[in-house]
Amino acid sequence: MRKSLIWIIVSIAIIAVAGLSWFLLLRDGGAALLSIFSPGLEGKGSLHLVLRVVTDDAVSQELLQDAERIANELHSRGIAFAGSKKGSADSFDVTDIDPARTDEVRSLGDQIYQGKYSVRSTVTEGKTGLSFTLLPAFVRVMRESAVKQTQEAILRRLNALGVSRPKVQIDNIGSKDIQDQLVVEIPGVDDPDRIKSIITDMARLDLKLVEQDTGGPYSGTEQAVQANGGKVPEGYEILPFRAERSEGNTLEYMVVRTESVITSRHLKIVRPSTGVDGAPAVSFFLTTDGGDIFSRFTERHVGERLAIVLNNVIYSAPVIEGKIGAEGIISGQFTRQQAEDLSLLLRSGTLPASLVVLEERRIGGPQGADSTSPDKK
After folding, report:
1. pLDDT tens digit string along 54-101?
2. Is residue 180 part of a domain?
3. Which of 330, 338, 350, 352 is the most exposed, fewest CB within 10 Å of its CB?
4. What total of structural domains would you count in the chain?
5. What is the DSSP annotation of 150-194?
């Protein structure tokens, strides 16, 4: 009986000492003890970012898409006009409309946009122009939606990377009309630069037709403009081209259609692969709708070049040699890691707007604490 009592007292003492030790370790951070249970995180740190979502990008993209949409509708109905393009502020303009059909264009705009725009008309030298301006309520919805979509896309990317317990929260501090800042906290980071790059990359894929006769490539934008009669043709734009054949991967420039044939929203499957030259590449497979669009388009444009554009930079511009189905490949002197990261980004979805890093803190890790804080705007 006495021995049993002694063992009970000893057991209580051991538990008390262990509990006190555990408390002291947690109070001091507990790093030494916790590293026993998580040896894989030894030497890793955490990454804290404050990001501003440039919601103007989302509004501009909406205006560009709506301008292209009504232009296509006017072409299909044989209504004469000079152009449809983004204007100032939150508007786009349709210029030089046949005066006899102005009311028809107004009615078409009401039908397409369902009250999203206010419309103002102007008359210059007998030609009518219509300016479509987004109503403030729709602008607010677009901006708030862009922040929420960005938050969701970043979480998908971090989950795809296998990051444990990431936090991506909308910063509600302050009295701004739109809460456009995100606070990102990521534990267990061993390559913070790569993580930050993956978080902030827009990952926008566009397939655009190259101008058939004067598309380039050119050594500079001035040469591209001169080759096109001193003015970029209506419905076209000049984009940088990462010339694969030149040393140092120098930039050249090409003239391509503004309107995209295929965008990131048409992607179904994306994965790392190998190009015909054996170099790392990225293969993609389109949705049913995307495959149908691509098939019809390539059949009509055999012999022309198709620019594969990532974040407004052309990576390749192969000749369309025949009707292409629902799959394609992106090459561009990638490393294996770059091909894997690009696949992850395209699978996770395009960001609706670009991001500005307002604050960055790196805590712990092999380099020790490191903090940078760009100026907030």
Report:
1. 999 999 988 988 888 898 888 888 888 888 888 888 999 999 888 888
2. no
3. 338
4. 2
5. HHHHHHHHHHHTT-SS-EEEE---S--SS--EEEEEEEEES-HHH
